[in-house]
Design goal:
The protein is mainly alpha-helical. The chain contains 7 helices and 4 strands. It has one domain. Strand 1 and strand 2 form a beta hairpin. It is globular.
Length: 147
């Protein structure tokens, strides 16, 4: 029988301050909990568009929450919050790669994002069309995610 750890090696040691920290990818349960808490992440993760003001106001908390889900040490999480953005981005990039590195993860996230755009939670009503693709975000405030 094949050991899943041989196919998908985890954890991965990444530079952290003057040392390293071991990170893993997010499981489906952890990823969906994070998206539930920070719905704008689906746009970031799927390569879609995110309102720029939401990106600025929510991403730091979402990044810290994602890091805390894979590193279960409160002191390390606090230290992550104080790292330079470049180091945070490298660590989050490793978590992202481990989370969606499989062949099917990207298409799955794109499908979820497409479904969410059909009936945005704040616009869904009995009179709204389930195939509506309107966005509540003004076009001039959208930013394409960067990965």
């Amino acid at each position: 029988m094949t050991d899943l750890r041989e196919l998908y090696p985890m954890p991965l040691a990444v530079p952290f301050g003057s040392g390293t920290v071991e990170v893993t990818g997010l499981s489906l349960r952890k990823l969906t909990a994070l998206i539930h808490q920070y719905p704008d992440l689906i746009g970031v993760l799927s390569g879609g568009k995110v309102a720029f003001n939401e990106l600025l106001s929510r991403v730091p908390d979402a990044a810290l929450a994602a890091f805390a889900l894979v590193v279960h040490d409160e002191e390390t999480v606090k230290a992550f919050d104080d790292l330079a953005f470049g180091q945070q981005a490298d660590i989050l990039g490793a978590i992202y790669d481990l989370t969606v590195g499989g062949k099917r993860a990207g298409p799955f996230l794109a499908s979820v994002a497409a479904q969410l755009r059909l009936t945005p939670p704040n616009e869904a009503s009995p009179n709204s069309s389930p195939n509506s693709t309107s966005s509540s975000v003004p076009a001039d405030t959208e930013a394409t995610s960067v990965t």
